[in-house]
Amino acid sequence: MKLKYTYTLFTLIMVLYFVPVNAQKTSKIKKPAAAKTIKKQPAKTIARPTAAKKQTDARSLGEAAAKVSSRDTVKKGGGGSGANPPNGGSLSEEIVVTTAYKPVLADAVKIRRNPDLEDKTPFKAPLNYAPLDKRLERNTEIKQLDAMKMPAQQDSVPLNNYIKVGAGNLKTTFAEGYFGNGKDEALQVGGYFKHIAQNGTAYYKQNTRKDQIGVFGKSIGDVNTLTGRIDYTNSSNYFYGYDKYAPPAALQLAHQYFNTISGEGEIAKNYKDVENDFTYALKLKGYAFGDRFKARENNLVLSGFLNQTINQFYTGLSASLDLSTQKDTLYSYNNSIIRVNPYIKFQGTDYKIDAGINIVDEFGFASRFSIFPAAKLEYQVIPKYVRLFVEAKGDVNKSSLRDFFGINPFLGQNIAIKNSVDQLDLTAGIKGTLAPGLGFKAFVFRNSVKNMPLFVNNFNLAAGYNRFMVIYDNGTSRVNGFNGELDYKASDDVDIFGNVVFKDYHMASEAQAWNLPKFKLTAGTAININNKVKITGSLLFRGLAYDRTISSSNLPNANSAPVTTIATISSFADLSGGIEYKVNKQVSVFGHVNNILNTTNQSWLYYPDYGFNIFGGASFSF
């Protein structure tokens, strides 16, 4: 490496030396006529000077050059100058070299950087990779949002117990209470009671009363959840109805009451947001029902389901065993049903499909085997706003004494028992959200019902008998209609809701759908004026309904057919409202007004509801 630098420096010195010498020689050339021999100075040996010696020589040469420059070293050929020289314009001239040319070389610029010969290898840490063994999925479908945990506030901490009592103008007495063990996420136990009684003034013995009491419990484990309850209900009324324009000489005012004890228990697997989850549930429930006139009904239902999730598929099986016995003075029936419903469900980003069948086997006093469709489709027309749905289903509706008396408490004895069949119920509609806080649901339906049950009067007012009975429309009835629901939550303080139902009946054997109105509207609102005052209101409008009256009196002879007349039950509107004032965290006072319009509302022929009535009271939490 050093030898290379030496050759380079030597070459540079030779170039700088010879090039000026050649230039000097060129400048001494004369014309041939006046050539002179120039004596040369003996050559001197040039030793390689040190750095200090180079600086001294350069300084001496500079001074000498300055001295030489002050003398005229050119001997000119004439004494003139300009255009007419004295020598007649001869171009010959003599250049006298007074000293030997000594070139000055500047110090070479050297790179003062030596290579680093040490071998340094950078350290590289070993890399360990642990890839996740998980399949990539497209999570583009709508998922339920996790609720954000709100910070605990003093006013939002629930209290364990609650009691509410009140009284009104129709000798109204009202009381209810709820009791619990407190805030425990794993165990909830408690009980409740309810009481309400009223005595009307429009009719004699227009009295009703209803009492309820029960206990409940819920235990949430790591895998399963257990729930259970036991309830007892007692209600009573009188048969006070009659035609005021033709009052009977005597009325069979009997005191009717109903007793029901019921209970249920359920075990269900807790929901977990995991792939391919297997879920199940099993429930056992039953009741014992009876009235004053020896009507009895016992019911026990064992039901459950199994469901396996496979990606976007849900496949499962639900089944139930419904055992019932029904008794009265003229019959004792065993009316039981087995249901099996296998199904498969598909769910995607914009659709949801439920496909299955409902297998029903009736046994007991009647035997029948049926298979019905059980299918439903939902499709998202406008994402996040509007969904279109269609449904087709069918089932057997078991006749139940408890259900019949719950709808019409003025029924007589020995109610006819016959199961009706929803052969095919078709539904199509839309649901969703039109704007923030404005939800809706609207659909049209067409039902085919075999042996539809109807309530009709069985009056014999001449004898003071004013009871109802149950008949069945023999054949297949058609029910077409429209159902619309609207709920507008303008803010946390204002909520308005409504529901409208319109039905068109095409009966198989009966002239009318007795005591079934074709139009019904329910609406309500709840407004929080501030954090202490809350106002509620509700509206019920029921359209026309019809009942039949069969009379065999005043006929020409005993073989004459009875005369059937149609009685019209007028439409009515029932407007109610309430107000509640929160005195503090524990105490509130309330007031409620029913039938503000004071209309004569008849839900059943000759059995009007209560007129204008008001009651109020207070509630206490602890």
Question: What can you see in these coordinates?
Answer:
The chain has 622 residues and is mostly beta strands. The protein has a domain at 1-41 and 94-101. The protein is built from three helices and 28 strands. The protein has helices at 2-27, 51-68, 401-407, and strands spanning 74-75, 94-95, 161-168, 173-180, 187-199, 207-220, 224-238, 255-269, 278-291, 296-310, 313-327, 332-347, 351-364, 368-382, 386-397, 420-435, 438-457, 468-491, 494-506, 519-528, 533-542, 545-551, 563-569, 572-582, 587-594, 602-604, 607-608, 613-621. The strands form four sheets. The protein has a 22-stranded antiparallel barrel. The chain has a two-stranded antiparallel ribbon with strand order 1-2. Strands 22-23 form a two-stranded antiparallel sheet. A hairpin with a 2-residue loop joins strand 18 (468-491) and strand 19. The protein is elongated and about 175 Å long. Residues 21-59 and 64-84 have low confidence and may be disordered.
Summarize it.
With 622 residues, the protein is mainly beta.
Which structural class matches the secondary elements?
mainly beta
Number of helices: 3
DSSP strand (E) fraction?
over 45%
Average pLDDT works out at 84
What share of the residues lie within helices?
Answer: under 10%
Largest sheet features? 22 strands, antiparallel, barrel
What Rg do the Cα atoms give? 55 Å
* Beta strand count: 28
N- to C-terminal distance: 100 Å
Shape: elongated
Low-confidence stretches: 21-59, 64-84
Question: Which key phrases capture this entry?
Answer:
mainly beta; 22-stranded antiparallel barrel; elongated; single chain
